[in-house]
């Protein structure tokens, strides 16, 4: 309990100021909002371990999850986070109304929100759309709240968009803070955010974008490496540069996996679809038309052929020797492991096996990160709310 | 809290008598049952606003929702209502067993009810079936309860059938009561329940039927207007006539939208499939056979062509001028707005925009209406139960 | 409440020892574990009837249900059990990743378990797979728990595998105990577990296997009867023999329904696919290939033709006369009733109607059986936990 009290004390020093707002992109957040959210996550995890009931919603209000793309990990993390805080989870499946924009979004968002405290949204399929959709939803519930239609203003939590994947990045940040002894211990640590080969060529760009944008804020030495043509969204590169400058960190982009791994404390090798290809695919999908499938097949063929040229972008035991001693392999999971679930993949078996449990621990931060985002956006004074949880001292299990 | 206490006081005067019964059609209810349910809804909403925990089921018993037709609004309203009262929502998807009648229904209803307090059912696809299915389910759980198989008798709540849509009508009733200052202020108000053109020709008849049947009870001047051939279920016309007579209200049927709008306080223009067509379609679907699709296509073509002749049945800014001053446009949502989500629709943009928030407020009553139906059917003395909620004074949020 | 206290007293005498373990197959359990689980089920049912809140998880932790085959009855029983104990149910649908073995299972099991207390799994489609999958999942969460990834060790509850259907068998055991006045009153009672004809030829073997394995432990006279070729999994026959020897019961296998019915106290006639056919079908499905569908059609044709030869394996009013007086018909439901939902089925209408409510009562034990399995595996001292529920004396409903 000492640990919890010390976290709450630290929280009181921070101006979190997220009440009735949303948790969309880390780069829209102040440093205090980021750190505050991280600390709330740590406090909730500690309370759970102490068998303390953390329900702050005591009426089974709804936590709505809207997955516009498949998900297991994030789905269960959101459900766990919602349950932890006392929300009942309801899935909102709007996949049938593909072109859900404009009036449909505005109205739909309000119709599901009469007793809703939070809407978690994953919408990462199309470049230029996911973030926009979340903003549109947030504006819709704001309008409903301002007009008195909604008795509370549900917060929108970004469970992955085309630009950012903040629940993943925050979960990784928590993992690094635990590994190295605190958020203030990350300064100077080198992280290699690198592309890696995978037979599945179309993975989202939001993970690498979220990592370079967030880790640069903590003074880390962030090295982004990918083959030519596998660029990220240009805006996120600008964000990373600016953050590195402000924090006294470093941000490098190269086309060499080895250079990135050199003396790295953390390597994060994963596959993604290059930005230009993502744009091309999005345009194809949007345009449709007669020869649509033909063109999509042609693009896929081109992508797979291009991909194959970079089969050597693999995280191997050998390559890990380039890193600093005690370097760790990280991944958002699930990953493609050579010889385990594919012929050639992002990582070899020895590396994967060595860090398998580490990567599970990494993932284990996600429920707390999401719960923290909900609590931060739904309560005026999160430190005071946590104090009330401690004071109430209700038990989580009837042991 | 004064407001709540005054509602509870009024409730005590009413003989609600719905314990261990169902909430199926408004016209099976006494006036006191209707008013009682409305007042419970208002009390629950007021308690929620006061941050009071309204859970009356304190063991996570189940609230089962059985949607035999798609739904977003009603689905979330039911989930919200169930959560508000402390029930855990479970969806029962029996769509695979299309011909779920007889033994299947009798057994299935009991098998999902061992710890269930309420089953909400939407079954509005086929004329002559939806209500029957709900009655069958109610009889099945009654048998299980009487035989001691079920430890409690789950109540069936009609979330829309082929005849009535009571959660919508009650939600509208609450909206009118709020607009005009009370249920007793509705007498003499004119409501135009009119057909309107929509490119989607097959919308259910239950909404207009539920409106004419319920609003006539409150002494309203109900004007039903539709093109020739777009009749409602004859029995509901009889119900509306009888109610108007009994309440001193008025019930008129015409084939003129303008006549209906003349001096109206409320207009409710929406598309529906004419009763005869609904019967024809149901018979086609039931019969199946070789040339089934051909016949269905032929019917659809005929319906669309017929529909097009009435493209002028639109609620326009111009037409609204026929109404009384301060007249309001209502809709069960989602609606088809000309130039917004279709080329020609039920309403024009200026009218839609003017009353958009009003229509959201209208919809916002649905969770409270459903929660009231559950509470009224599951507790012997709803006024006493509400009093206990007030006395307990548990907080909904840990603020 | 006296009844509850007496059950708790009996429970204290038993060494249940299931904490942080799984509930997979009855034959892996000691007699005390079986009896202990049964008594917990009876205690929970009694508490529910007394309007006592039974939530032992007070933080909305997750109860995950993973149905790799369709289910209504067991799905709702699991949901009810989870809700009763305070868990929020989340479905884990992994049907898309058909070949979910190896790494996928190991990782997936941990990823859904960060705040999960229990995972209920149905996986009964393929001989030799279902139980293995459950063991694999259990080992995965054990590894995660040992490594500190999971803060609690979710228990796996078998909701039907290829070998056993313990929630059904335990539910039947409870039914028999209630019918005859206690678990100690089953000795010598004859149960006829017989095959019966059904137009659906492919029903799982787990129910008959679970019945012969469990009921032989209680000294019952278990008579298994089926046409030639409709064998059960050989291992389960061995288990039944051994149990009968140990308990002083009896285990007979014959090919005569009449012989089985002779003087039986309980008859349990139901259809299943013979073991050899199940193996053949599994191999076909696993192998796939070009002529796969052709071969499957051929097998199906052969099975249906073979089945038809045994159309006289029906539980009829006439045949029931062979039984002891007061004999009862049991079934796991849903069943195929001649002239009701099929032309020729497992049972005739008079027998079905006579015992319909009895079979519903039989099924009604399932939620309590599942809840008991969860409580037994998640709490160190279930008797003490039940005592705390009694002492807390919180009400289930605000009556």
Automatic annotation (TrEMBL), chains A, B, C:
InterPro entries membership: Asp/Orn_carbamoyltranf_P-bd, Asp/Orn_carbamoylTrfase, Asp/Orn_carbamoylTrfase_sf, Asp_carbamoyltransf_Asp/Orn-bd, Carbamoyltransferase_YgeW
PANTHER family in alphabetical order: ORNITHINE CARBAMOYLTRANSFERASE, MITOCHONDRIAL (PTHR45753), ORNITHINE TRANSCARBAMYLASE, MITOCHONDRIAL (PTHR45753:SF3)
Transmembrane regions listed in the UniProt entry: none
Similarity remark: Belongs to the aspartate/ornithine carbamoyltransferase superfamily. OTCase family.
Enzyme Commission no: 2.1.3.3
Keyword Transmembrane: no
Example GO biological process: L-arginine biosynthetic process via ornithine
Keywords linked to the UniProt accession: Transferase
GO molecular function: amino acid binding; ornithine carbamoyltransferase activity
Domain Aspartate/ornithine carbamoyltransferase Asp/Orn-binding: from-to ranges: 207-375
Descriptive protein name: ornithine carbamoyltransferase
Domain Aspartate/ornithine carbamoyltransferase carbamoyl-P binding: 21-176
Pfam families reported for this sequence: OTCace, OTCace_N
